[in-house]
Amino acid sequence: MIEQLGVAIRREPLGTDGGGLCIIQGKRVLFVDTAADLATQRAVCLSLLAQTPEFDNMFARPDIRSAVEAVRAAGGSND
What we know:
Number of strands: 3
Helix content: 25-40%
Number of helices: 2
Shape: globular
Structural class: alpha+beta
Strand content: 15-25%
Mean pLDDT: 90
Order of helices and strands: EEEHH
Oligomer: single chain
Strand order of the largest sheet: 1-3-2
């Protein structure tokens, strides 16, 4: 789903911080920290979706949409 938004995903060991979005040569890249636990990895992905307006126009499973809305209600990040 994240890749459908034009965001590349890279999985790298980053020291358990979770990762985050960056721009590399004009392209959005989401780094997912493989050293982080799954809950932290999930939070990074949900935070990205919550901050991406294009997500609203995509089909998403109800559980994912609900989780994104919960992140938005909490202020936009789920760190």
